[in-house]
Amino acid sequence: MSRSAHPAGPRHADVLTEGHYAAPPADLNVLDEKVWARTVSRNDDGAVTVGGIEVTRLAEEFGTPAYFLDESDFRARCRAWADAFGPGADVFYAGKAFLSRAVVRWLKEEGLNLDVCSGGELTTALDAGMPAERIAFHGNNKTVAEIERAVQVGVGRIVLDSFQEIVRVSHIAQRLGKRQRVQIRVTVGVEAHTHEFIATAHEDQKFGIALAGGQAAEAVRRALTLDGIELIGIHSHIGSQIFDMAGFEVSARRVVQLLAEVRDEHGVELPEIDLGGGLGIAYTSDDDPREPHEIAKALGDIVTRECEAAGLATPRISVEPGRAIVGPTAFTLYEVGTIKHLEGLRTYVSVDGGMSDNIRTALYDAEYSVALVSRRSDAEPMLVRVVGKHCESGDIVVKDAFLPSDLAPGDLIAVPATGAYCRSMASNYNHALRPPVVAVRDGEARVIVRRETEEDLLRLDVG
Ligand code: LLP
Fold first, then answer.
1. Which of 75, 146, 191, 316 lies 20 to 30 Å (CA to CA) from residue 310?
2. Contact call for residues 389 and 397 (beta carbons, < 8 A)
3. Which of 78, 117, 307, 391 is labelled catalytic?
4. Ligand 1: which of 323, 326, 418, 427 to mutate, most ligand atoms within 8 Å of CB?
């Protein structure tokens, strides 16, 4: 991309010339449906609407910053995953991406199961009426109290993450007079990162039990001999924001190999495998995520083929998408405050939130898109960096993006695809008040997680 191709002029020419921000889109008013929730569109007056409601109205009623979640999109994605995998498989929504009681109810109604990884998530799930048998409990260091609670309420499965935990769960279940269904989480030796996957020193991570060196086989040996637990399968989660199915293919193949080894050694065919989550979504127009039916077919084909080759009956497959369900369904709405033009460098657009409501840019160098949503503008595009209001220069929301050059304080801008790992990783840094999550559906908006207040802050600060 040549410098002269920047309509914003030489002021921005030296900044960055690669990736999706190398050239502005033809029309900044057009919203790429890949990155926006399904009911988002721009109306004739130029304002963006979600679920039929203008964002300007939403900002007046709920304030900014705030996350707006398209409930019908969320439900449609749940159904798409459930339909794609069909009755012979199980879809567990990964609650860590975003969990609230409303979300639990939607999941329940749409026929999904739920993966939780802490006592807090378990409480939320149970409180909102998710049947315990539809819950999977994860984590590399579940506390004794968490395990006791999970066993006591009868979660559908506990995913065992270490040798110690195999014994721990067995003891707890025996003490409580229960037999707990468990899976063993294995690390298969592939680590997937966005577009690529790389073979890795798989023992060098905190999760799971390595297939390498026969450790996973040894874990199975122990689990099969201990009382109080019933080993129902093997679990593998290879990473996050993955587009390439090759990593899943390797993972599925290695898990099936383990099932064959278990059959040969113990005469037992474990009935289930879980291939985890990690399916990528579009954060920018450059990303091309796969549809659930493509993923289901690819995974199903691999497992069937590998099982046939090994002479095994095909096990029941489960998956745990978090980001792929909730990520695209929400956007964060901000009000523009300060705008600072640095001649020859870049333009900083400061918003009323930041790393406290979206830590992903600072933490993972994540890329996001952004759009002016309170009005239409035909002004020239300007390359900007959207930053927050926190006392830290790494407080970046969108590293590089184009916004209209007539952007002014008071305008509303929105960052799409913030449904996953934004509210759930939000913090009170600088005593920021965590934003609300507002569900929008068919012309109605309701708060499902309210905004924090200064009273909330002071209530925890017991003086
Ligand atoms: N299952 C297991 C066992 C997991 O550890 C995870 C995510 C998932 C399922 C769901 O993965 P998903 O489909 O949402 O990618 N905070 C990071 C993501 C951490 C994911 C941790 N485990 C981020 O913001 O990208």
1. 191
2. no
3. 391
4. 323
- Rounded distance from Cα 87 to ligand 1 centre (Å): 24
Write phi, then psi, for 453 (nearest 5 degrees).
Answer: -120, 170
Beta strand spans in 145-223 (E): 157-160, 180-187, 190-193, 196-199, 209-210
Q: How far is the CA of 463 from the centre of ligand 1 (A)?
A: 36
Per-position pLDDT tens, the chain of length 463 = 333 333 343 334 444 544 556 688 889 999 999 999 999 999 999 999 999 999 999 999 999 999 999 999 999 999 999 999 999 999 999 999 999 999 999 999 999 999 999 999 999 999 999 999 999 999 999 999 999 999 999 999 999 999 999 999 999 999 999 999 999 999 998 866 544 444 443 567 889 999 999 999 999 999 999 999 999 999 999 999 999 899 999 999 999 999 999 999 999 999 999 999 999 999 999 999 999 999 999 999 999 999 999 999 999 999 999 999 999 999 999 999 999 999 988 999 999 999 999 999 999 999 999 999 999 999 999 999 999 999 999 999 999 999 999 999 999 999 999 999 999 999 999 999 999 999 999 999 999 999 999 999 999 999 9
d(CA 139, CA 153): 17
Alpha helices by DSSP H, listed for 47-132, are 55-62, 71-85, 101-109, 119-127
Asked about 422 being catalytic, the answer comes back as: no
Q: How far apart are the C-alpha atoms of 220 and 182, rounded to whole Å?
A: 11
| Closest ligand 1 atom number to CA of residue 360 | 24
Ligand 1: list residues with CB < 6 Å: 94, 96-97, 115, 138, 237, 240-241, 276-279, 320-324, 360, 364, 420-421
Ligand 1 atom having least distance to the Cα of 159: 3
**Ordered structural domains, the chain, with CATH:** 12-70+328-460 (2.40.37.10), 138-321 (3.20.20.10)
Contact of 105 with 128, CB cutoff 8 Å = yes
The rounded Å distance from CA 117 to ligand 1 centre is 11
